[in-house]
Amino acid sequence: MKIIISHTLLAEAKKGNRKAMQELYALTVRCLTSLCQRYIAQDEDVKDVLQDSYIKIFRGLKDFTPTGEGALVSWMVQIVTNESLMFLRNQKRLQYIETTDTLPDVEDELPVERFSPEEIHRAIRQLPTGYRTVLNLYVFEEKSHKEIAQLLGIKENTSASQLNRAKALLKKILQEQEGGTE
Amino acid sequence: MKELWAEKLKEKLQGHEVEQIPEDLWAGIEKELNAAEQTVPFYKKKYTWSAAAVVLLLILGGSAALYLQKDTSKLVAETTEILQQETPELEIVQKDEPVPVKALPTQAPAKATKKTQLTLVQSKYEEETAAPETEPQEPLTEAEPDETESQEKENAVTEETAPSKKQEESHVFPPTDNYRKQQPTGKSRNSKKITLAFTASGINPPTIDLRGGDFDNLQESINPGDQWSDQMAGNPGDKDKDKDKDKDKNQNQGISAPILDKNQPLTRAGLSKEDPVVEENHRRPITIGLQVGIPVSAKWWLTTGLSYTNMKSEIRHRSGKTSMQELHFVGIPASLNYSLYKDEKWHIYAGAGGRMDMGKTVYFSLSATPGIQYQLRNGLSLYAEPALQYNLPSSGKYHTYFTTHKWMGDLHIGLRWSLGK
After folding, report:
1. Residue B207: partners with Cβ closer than 8 Å, 6 or more residues away
2. Measured on CA atoms in the order A108, A111, A116, A121, is the torsion positive or negative?
3. Are residues B239 and B159 in contact, defined by beta-carbon separation less than 8 angstroms?
4. Which positions of chain B have pLDDT values less than 70?
5. Is residue A177 a contact partner of residue A119, using CB atoms and an 8 Å limit?
6. pLDDT digits (tens, 9 = 90+) for A141-181
7. ipTM of the complex
8. Which residue(s) pair with B357 in the sheet?
9. Burial of B381 by CB count in 10 Å (0-12 exposed, 13-18 middle, 19+ buried)?
10. In angstroms, how far apart are the furthest CA atoms of chain A?
């Protein structure tokens, strides 16, 4: 679903109009909650990170200058992503399994089309934190393994292996969900 | 270019929204926003820099005013003792007592009348080489019983050069033979009678204050060409700018500018019998500091660090020489503060504490202060504290503003690094 935020709403929110801010929150909170839940598994933690993110958004709104359509939402997504990563770093929940084992051979075609967004979202949240983080950065933030390695302070091949394992585990979870529902 | 599966996955979750959002999320956000708004009531951001500039100007202006302000201290007891020992003929006369003045004007200068409690009449000095029989003595008062027509002539000249002579006379008591004292260094060839009218401030007899309007009397009672003037004429090019400034200032105040002798500390040892100190001017000190603020609780916090205090004193000797005493102190302050108002930039608080100042001597002081702090960046703040300070008694040998003022107003300014939020 595409979020449409009018210039009037943005202008009022920038002025500090509380109703406009609440409207902006209502328009974006479900999308940003989905994003935050992809990074953070615990609901209480999601709430804390979202609250901090919105405070930052509203405080920084008066200095925000939209550069085009969708710029505001992209900016808000970036803030939530950064806050989520910061939370994970502070909680030291980024644990990676360093192995030299032969990686499982995952078929290139992850059958995502067979699953609904909710099923995929739920499956991603079941991944271990390390797998989930690398998957999010690689797929949704479109980061390279080099960038992920720099961002998370890991080796490039660790990022690659984490992604490969995340992909395999995601496929397995989705297939189990599919089998369970049949 | 990402793999196909990644493209499909991203596309699948593009714009995905969850059905359930965290409970009371907006309530928590609004609470935080309200708390933030409550801390920004008295300024808007666009006024922040102008407000900061105003505060900075006030601090700098106040500092300059305090620094330039002089305080004439009371003379120490030792000085008077020396004066009395050295000039036993010096009398301390209650002004209320009848004095042998032939003609006292009915109207004395208001300033002098208000301030004067005691009047000291210092003798006329006569040079050893002078011949009183051949050279006319300056008739500063009409009470000289042995003055003759020549006195009247000089009196007329004096009146030309000193229009307010009549006023001056109201504070000049007639010298008698008991007041005569021979001049130790006879530079002037003329025999001069210099009548000095010293007015004392304060109740205690040992203290002498040569402040304010009394300087006018002092100047007018000194003839051009006397010892002080000769000294000035003989040393015109040896003085630095400060001395010239001081000279000009004194001249403006009506005093023949004396010779400055820098770096002569005001110590007990400096109160020599030959040239005792007759006046101390202690400039109000200013303290600058580097501090760290340590939060104790939400409202209470401690400050400590290092401070620097500069104390300057001008010292006038009886011969007219002036020396400058400058002392430097490094202090360790410590105080407990209570936050009255705080936002992202401004912090207003009240505190109490103490400070130990270490230099050539050690001073301890207690202070209570309101304070204002402006955050520059990342916990680094500029602070200003107009403090009410109590200086504990010191056994040090130096006379400074601290030793002459138990209670004083002080301005503490500096930089502070605040720990925590």
Report:
1. B74, B75, B77, B80, B200, B201
2. negative
3. no
4. 1, 37-274, 421
5. yes
6. 999 999 999 988 888 999 998 998 899 899 888 888 777 65
7. 0.86
8. B331, B363
9. buried
10. 57
The identity of residue B412, as a single letter, is H
Chain B residues whose CB is inside 8 A of the A5 CB are none
Q: Give the minimum alpha-carbon distance from B29 to chain A in angstroms, rounded to a whole number.
A: 6
User: E strand or H helix at B372, and its extent?
Assistant: strand B362-377
- Locate tokens 């500039």: which residue? B53
Question: What's residue B119's pLDDT?
Answer: 36
* Cβ–Cβ gap A167/B5 under 8 Å: yes
DSSP E strands: which ranges in B229-361? Answer: 260-262, 277-282, 286-295, 300-317, 322-342, 346-358
Task: Look at strands B260-262 and B196-200 and give their pairing.
Answer: unpaired
| Coil/strand/helix, residue B150 | helix
Q: Which positions ≥6 away from B115 have C-beta within 8 Å?
A: B199, B201, B209, B211, B212, B213, B214
Measured between CA atoms, the residue of chain A closest to residue B19 is A30
Q: And the tokens for B27?
A: 């309530």
Residue A43: list chain B partners with CB under 8 A. Answer: 22
Residue A179: predicted pLDDT = 72
Q: Which two tokens stand for residue A98?
A: 């360093």
- In this prediction the pTM is 0.41
Beta carbon pairs, A and B, within 8 Å: 88
Strand B196-200 to B118-122 pairing? antiparallel
pLDDT greater than 70 at residue A29: yes
The H or E element that residue B13 is part of is helix B4-13
Q: Residue B126 in 3-state DSSP?
A: strand
Contact B17 A1 (CB under 8 A): yes
A177 CB near a chain B CB, below 8 Å? no
Is A92 at the interface with chain B, CB within 8 A? no
B26·A22 Cβ contact <8 A: yes
* Calpha distance B291→B301 (Å, rounded): 12
Which of B9, B30, B32 lies closest to A120 in CB terms? B9
Q: Strand pairing of B286-295 and B260-262? A: unpaired
User: And the tokens for B327?
Assistant: 């002392």
* Residue pLDDT, tens place only, B309-365: 888 888 888 888 888 888 899 999 999 999 888 877 888 999 999 999 998 888 999
Burial B273-296 (b: 16+ CB within 10 A, else e): eebbbbbbbbbbbbbebebebeee
Query: Taking phi first (over 0 means left), then psi (-120 to 50 degrees means alpha), and beta for anything else, what does residue A18 get?
Result: alpha
